[in-house]
Amino acid sequence: MPHPANHWRVTIDLLTEILGRFLIQFQSPALAFLLGGILIAACGSRLQIPDAVYKFCVFMLLMRIGLEGGIEIRHGEIVSMLVPAVAAVAVGCLIVYLGRMVLIRLPGVRPDDAIATVGLFGAVSASTLAAAMVLLEQQQARFEAWVPALYPFMDIPALVLAIVLANIQKSSASGVQRKKIRIMPIVLESLQGSALSALLLGILLGLLAHPESVFETFYDPLFQGFLSVLMLTMGLEAYSRLVELRAVAHWYALYAAIAPILHGLLGFAFGYIAHVLTGFSPAGVVLLAVMAGSSSDISGPPTLRAGIPSANPSAYIGASTSVGTPVAIVFGIPLYIALADWIFGSAA
Amino acid sequence: MSLEAVKVVVITEKLIAEKVCALIEACGATGYTVVAAGGKGSRSIRSANRARVVDEFSNVKIEVVTPDVAMANQIAESVIDEFLNDYSGITYFETVQIVRSQKFRR
């Protein structure tokens, strides 16, 4: 049995490690622009990022991620994706199911709003994923090319499960025989969303065509610049949504502050199992944790608005955009990288 | 030359614009106009041109000129019944003078 002092030293080492990562991360462009956006919005700045520019940034990011994935999948083997994909589905569903059990019991929280909120937190944020990928690539951490393709495996089951649970909730509350929920339209709508369409098209083009020249001269060099504009927009939006969040129960703010980290750790645990079973890379485990910890801000909200119309969007979008996403990026990403360093050695 | 008619205006979420338009056509209207809208209502302030992380939550103003009051009522009632319990929005009538009245009848 190791001496108790060793435990302390390990804990202190880990804390110093995480603290050091935070300091580096605070200066990374992605986070600096996010915080900058929040800052100038708080100062009442009239700076606006036009809607079309924002949408183009999202497209650039996901097309670049998709193309790179597709190009590399062409050379790699995709069979090893199976276990992590199952883990992604399990994490997405667990977040929604467990989150619902907790959130629904809190005072002042309407069941519909609670289910929509956990659905959004189970879904995946493309911008958070992109920020984590940039950070890992800067550290020359290698992850399997198909890791970004795990996105829909977590995103869609979470949204579908949330909508199904909301419908069950509604029919049991009203006592009316419940309508059969058709799942395919929800899946289809998620796939047709702007973020997933761009990602899947990118993967397809990378896989079937030879887009290397356009990838190397256009998408890859511009990636970080567009990510900074996107982060600035997210910061502006985060601040403006805070006002809406204040109008709903404070439990949402608390949930949104804690849940991303817990979800990320859950994702990390499942990633670790995949690592033991199939040799899933440490950086891949980190990205799975980032996906689990992120909450959808682009494609999730409209899907939920259409699927659970009775839920108040101020509750779930306010929680996700103004608290969840900043927490997932600022605290989540460095935490999982530090954790991976600690558990796997310097591999991540 | 001009003729009096009723215009139904629906200001609501872009997310359901397509469904509202389908409903308007189902009521027998021959056409409609959709424009981007912004402003303040009982739910929140919505900006017309600032970047929104979720574009589907921006607002639209749908206008439809109806040849008779019955159709106008039918459109307003069915929009309210079907959508405005869950989605944000308002609907109102305006009296307008139309020319080329045959364009508003099937």
Describe the structure concisely for a colleague.
The complex is a heterodimer of chains A (348) and B (106). Chain A has 348 residues and is an all-alpha fold.
The helix content of chain B is: 10-25%
Major pleated sheet of chain A:
none
| Annotation field: number of helices of chain B | 2
Distance between the termini of chain A: 29 Å
Helix proportion of chain A: over 70%
Mean pLDDT over the full residue set of chain B = 86
Largest interface: A-B, 24 and 16 residues
Q: What overall form of chain B do the CA principal axes indicate?
A: globular
What order do the SSEs of chain B take from the amino end to the carboxyl end, as H and E?
A: EHEEEEHE
Structure description:
The complex is a heterodimer of chains A (348) and B (106). Chain A contains 14 helices and no strands. In chain A, helix 6 packs across helix 10 and helix 11 (251-278) runs parallel beside helix 14 (313-344). Chain A is globular. In chain A, 79% of the residues lie in helices and 0% in strands. Chain A is mainly alpha-helical and 348 residues long. The model of chain A has no long low-confidence stretch (mean pLDDT 87). Chain B is an alpha+beta fold and 106 residues long. Helix content of chain B is 23%, strand content 36%. In chain B, the strands form 2 sheets. A 4-stranded antiparallel β-sheet of chain B has the order 2-5-1-6, with helices on one face. In chain B, strands 3-4 form a two-stranded antiparallel sheet. In chain B, a hairpin with a 4-residue loop joins strand 3 (39-40) and strand 4. The longest helix of chain B has 14 residues, at 69-82. The relative contact order of chain B is 0.34. The interface between A and B is medium-sized, with 24 and 16 residues.
